Amino acid sequence: MTDHKVITELRDMTYLKWSHVRSSSGTAGTFLKSESVMDGRKQYYKLSNFDPVNGVVGNECVNEIVVDRLLTLLGVEHVPYTLIHAEIQIDGRTYTTWLCESEDFKQRGESKLALDNYYTANMEMGESRLDFCIRNGWQEYVETVLAVDYLILNRDRHGANIEVLRNARAHTLRLAPLFDHGLSLLCSCLTEEEAKRFDVMEDRRCQNFIGGYSCFENLNLIRDRRTVFQGTLRAEDRETVFEGLEDALPDIFREKIWDMIWERYKVLMA
Questions:
Q1: Strand, coil or helix: what is 145?
Q2: What is the pLDDT of residues 180-233, one digit of tens each?
Q3: Of 130, 118, 116, 110, which Cα lies nearest the Cα of 172?
């Protein structure tokens, strides 16, 4: 297939101004974000891990595209991303790197609020986060989140990475499409040797607002794991997930990431 979500031709994007956002999960380093307005729509940009000595390192931006494609196959509503090969400028220095782009997912008239803040303001005495979501009619949504985060070993589903969208005039309330999956998959591996040694089934500590610190144990919160996704993943989908990423993601990373997704998917569906 031809995928418009990967732009390999080098683009001059030195006009973007980058702001520093510290990693919320305790991961060392700085994640830079930017935004612009094109044709009346706000566009958001982000980089993988950055430090002034080594520049942009890691594969967090590529992870967004991998997960984007995975969620499309599984029929999960999510924010779509575009991966762009670009020249950027930070503090007067020019870097050639990959960045990812997404559009504002709010509809006209909507405002957004982090789920943790909404929970704090509206919870009943002693009500758990899961029970709060169930009471608000979001059980299917949070079960999907827990299943996705198990597949990709998402370490960063904190309470601001799930957003409540409100339209006060229309009296509507909904949860945002899934977004921000950079700190997942092999995000802790910076070298091919680290990727080779990575155990794709290891239950590493994660941050999850709805569940606990174990992505595997969080599966116990799902009523029926085999029906949690509308779509089905197949072995031949590997080609779809990684098409056009040869220059952005080394072979060993693509191999190990697919092993993670496929082996975890088989356990989920067992």
A1: helix
A2: 999 999 999 999 999 999 999 999 999 999 999 999 999 999 999 999 999 999
A3: 110
Largest CA distance in the chain: 55
Residue 31, pLDDT score: 84
Query: DSSP label at 233?
Result: -
CA 198, distance to chain mean position in Å, is: 20
234 Cβ partners below 8 Å, 6+ apart?
A: none
Model confidence at 46, pLDDT cuts 50, 70, 90, reads very high
**Strands 207-208, 156-157: parallel, antiparallel or unpaired by DSSP?**
parallel
Report the relative pairing of strands 207-208 and 172-175 from DSSP bridges.
unpaired
Cβ atoms of 5 and 68 closer than 8 Å: yes
pLDDT number for residue 22: 46
SS3 assignment, position 144: helix
Instruction: Measure the CA dihedral 123/110/13/10, to 10°.
Output: 90
Q: 238 and 246 in contact (C-beta within 8 Å)?
A: no
CB 147 within 8 A of CB 268: yes
Tell me the H-state helices in the chain.
Answer: 60-74, 115-122, 129-135, 139-152, 192-197, 238-242, 251-269
Would you state the pLDDT for residue 51? Answer: 85
Backbone angles phi, psi at 140, to 5 degrees: -60, -40
Are the beta carbons of 146 and 157 closer than 8 angstroms?
A: no
In this prediction the pTM is 0.93
For 173-204, letters b (16+ CB in 10 Å) and e give bebbebbbbbbbbbbebeeeeebeebebeeee
